[in-house]
Design brief:
By secondary structure, the chain is an alpha/beta fold. The longest helix is centred in the middle third of the chain and has 29 residues. The chain is globular. It is built from eight helices and seven strands.
């Protein structure tokens, strides 16, 4: 594959379809070389051929199943060793259909492995090298369900709340080292995740469903603007800032040496 003239590479997980594949197309158009990570090597090769032909960038493939510890470590090792990687897009994720009581152990384990453990280990590997180098960026794909956990599947919602919290903490730790962190909170997006989880978009009002290209374009504009939290569907960003301020106002009273008076 033809090498590009620069040395910036984006590593994208879940790159064989949906949000990850769309990030690959958009970042290739921006001139990034790519390292695409997913289980489906056939799809990865098709996407790599498409992007090399369209943009002349270098596209490398790393076939990995992020449900497996050994494969997580394989990707993390590449992040630690490849100094050309300056951007990590943690896009891999799965969903579950049904309640917590209905969830089977194997499906729950798979979700937690991919949505939490793999994302955390890869973000950690990137954070170490990026902070030592004084630059780089990490984009974590969360979900708006982290803000409305009462309305959605408990395990998936909790996993995405973790992604939001982790990203906010990472920003606090890494900003002074020149590392940008962004967490993207999509609403309902037209991807394969619904069918894979055994649910369907057919029951969701069309006005609530965003096309994946629109989602990624909005997310990248938020990234360019330096946003920590990007909610592509939210018309007024001041609503998010108000929520953040309300949360921070709790800080002085969250830890005292005596219980609140109402408990005495």
């Amino acid at each position: 594959m033809k090498a590009s003239s620069h040395a910036q590479t984006a590593l994208i997980t879940g790159a064989s379809s949906g949000i990850g594949a769309t990030y690959a197309r958009r970042l290739a158009a921006r001139g990034y070389d790519l390292l695409l990570v997913a289980r489906n090597e056939t799809r990865l090769r098709q996407l790599a051929d498409e992007l090399t032909a369209a943009h002349g960038v270098r596209v490398d493939l790393l076939s990995a199943d992020l449900e497996q510890h050994a494969d997580i470590e394989k990707v993390a090792a590449r992040l630690r060793s490849d100094e050309q990687i300056t951007l990590l897009v943690n896009s891999a994720g799965i969903a579950l259909n049904g309640s917590l009581a209905e969830a089977d152990l194997d499906s729950t384990h798979s979700l937690l492995q991919i949505n939490l453990l793999a994302l955390t280990m890869l973000a950690s590997a990137a954070a170490v090298r990026f902070s030592l180098g004084g630059g780089g960026a990490i984009i974590n794909i969360g979900s708006v369900v982290s803000l409305l956990p009462e309305r959605f599947n408990a395990i998936y919602s909790a996993s995405k709340a973790y992604v939001l919290s982790l990203s906010q903490s990472m920003h606090a730790e890494l900003a002074s080292h020149g590392v940008q962190v962004q967490v993207v909170l999509p609403g309902v997006t037209r991807t394969e995740i619904f069918e894979r989880s055994g649910s369907s978009l057919a029951q969701i009002p069309p006005g609530m469903v965003m096309e994946v290209e629109d989602l990624v374009d909005a997310a990248l504009r938020g990234f360019d603007q330096g946003e920590l939290v990007t909610i592509p569907s939210l018309p007024d960003s001041s609503e998010w800032h108000a929520l953040t301020q309300a949360r921070l106002q709790l800080a002085p009273n969250l830890s005292h040496n005596q219980p609140a008076a109402r408990y005495l």
